[in-house]
Fold each of these.
Amino acid sequence: MKTIYEGKTKDIRQEDGKTYFYFKDDVTGKDGVFDPGENQVGLSIEGSGRACIAMSKYFFEKFEADIIPTHYISADVDNRLMEIKPAKVFGKGLEVICRFKATGSFIRRYGKYAKDGDDLNRYVEFTLKDDERQDPLINEDALVLLGILKEGEYDRIKELTRSISQVIYDDLKARGLEMYDIKLEFGRLEGSDEVVLIDEVSGGNMRVYKGDEYIEPLRLSEMIVGK
């Protein structure tokens, strides 16, 4: 396979006209400590790549059953390869957060008006992928003005984000778990204007609790799909 892009935790590879994600065991963190909120590779954890692709496969196939558009085609968990439809990211990368409960950066910004654990009713935020500027928030007007989104795409992405997040929330709730928030990415399918979910859906993309206990990403994957 030819590697056409090397990312922090996964690479994009091509072979025989097909495109794949290869999930690595590298994880984000700082000073040798695993932290999914960091923007740099901090260490390597054996099995983390397999955990990410297994959980992504599980949820992407749930979305397919619910007719939610994604870039997913199939996954080979043992070889850590996910076949995907080529898609173009918005601008230089856009992240969309859906918040069920107030925590993290939401409290840091709005702590005068909210406390940790307050209900947020699927509140949606858009941020630019920009490590240097710490992934700044951006609104609809700026996204359109800067040519990152076309007219109407903001509302479509917001609608998809809430639908996707609710599917995951309900699945976890049935297991006695509660998702506080989740980060998703979207793009346009190559040669099309269709907006689809891209990237991965794994424990590192979400904050999940069992009562007051935070569930670490790798443990969450084991709870969803096993080892």
Amino acid sequence: MHLTLSAAAHRLSAASEPQGGIAGWAAGLVETFGGPGAGAAIALENVFPPLPSEVILPLTGFAASQGVLSIASALFWTTLGSVVGAVVLYGVGAVFGRERMHAWWAKLPLVKASDLVRTEAWFARHGTKAVLLGRMVPVFRSLISVPAGVERMPLPVFVALTAAGSLVWNTVLVMAGYLLGDQWDVVGSYVGIVSKAVLALTVLALAGYVTMRVRSRRRGKS
């Protein structure tokens, strides 16, 4: 069983060195520690988003299909890891705080204090949905924890929403790896496409925002 899992990581390494390195590292954690190893990998993925859950979770599902751990253990530990990682980022946001956020925002070009106030008002109205659904969106699934901490969303509510959203995301990717068997790495390709699309839309939205601000300032000076 362990040899099969290591062989899968080795094949991914041959196809792509960066992903192979992460796959081998995650495989080693799962092989050595089982469910807790998978949970530790996902906790680190939440704190360091460049570590891809689309590699770690399907690999964990494949490990479950080989009997290295059970599906129940895979889902429990990866969801616990997701919550632990998210709470760390929530803590970063809470320590940074609202006052520091406003002071930092005031130093940025092309933005207004009113923009941040509106964003805070939006989060106050829709923060629960943002945290819940954000856990299922590539790129934002980790980052959404920071504004939740800045706005001091009640920690029990944050943990419950994070656990629910993470369970959905983890179940989809773990089960995909479980069902695909030694083709588990296909999952990463599709999720990677979605991640790139989300990132591209974010960049376009930011570019549009900056363009509007520049035009607004020019009109104000004319």
Amino acid sequence: MRGWERVLSVLEALWERGQVAGHGWTLDTELLPPHQQQVNALENQGLVELACREDRAELSALEERPVRWAARLTPYGHDTLTYGQSRPRAEPPPGEAAPDRQPVELIPSQMAALRVFVGLTGRLRVPPAEGLAEQVRTATPLR
């Protein structure tokens, strides 16, 4: 899991657990210590707020047990999560095919023919596969 994906998964976990709890906070018993450490790092980025002593005292009264640690999303964390859940998915890196695709290597004359083919898109009765024109346009020659 990449760093960005890890951040989103932590933010998502905090949001979901806070919603289930009803008070917006994720408590110490709901996250493992390594995840709590990730949350602590996100606090430094302004994405997460850790409960202060007064908040922990209120949460302890609500939970009828001592709450030693609690966290929730800041408005910036919420916006980051919202963007992360709705952002366009990145194309696979060069050399890595999408699950339903397979990379191919073409010699220059084959690539030229493919460029002509996708250039005829408006005049063809059966258009090229969706996204093919963009892939051809952004293809890079192998060296």
Amino acid sequence: MTVRRPHPIEVRSYEVLRSRVDLSPMPPLWRAVAERVIHATADLEYAVDLVTTEEHLAEGWAALRAGAPVVTDEGMAAAGISAREAVCHAADPAAARMARAAGITRSAAAVRLSYSEVGPGAVWVVGSAPEAIFEIVARRVSPALVIGVPAGFVGACEAKQALRASGLPQLSNVSEKGGSAVAAAAVNALLYHEAARP
């Protein structure tokens, strides 16, 4: 297995981050995710905004280590995941056709297409579309983990609350902020953690 060697700028960024916020009391996976999200956003508030459990993150980490598929809600999140190819049907013409035929959003249709491809046990990564979270919950996709951090003033907080209430293994955040960079950073943290601790 190849050991990841961070760029010196990344190393320095983590030094600065750790001088400004002490996340050392957090369990290892939660800390890895929080630090990677803060590193990606330069937003220290994520130290208290992220909501998960170490057990949920461990389920996702183990699934990734075993080769579970990663599914994203849109191309920007997929592009930000640097250590694994992601399944993303957001731009698939079939998603547009299904959305029109079923009277659902394209994001919801993309979830249905993705689930038909990957089945249960995937890691789902949502950084943009609250509708994707609602569809994941409604479809009972049996995920290994759902990283649900869409940003926005309409529907984002409600979707994240629904995810937390669903009982699914999840990582979300409480506030209206989030986005593709946050979603990709969270899954990258788990993938990098996998490489660092075989």
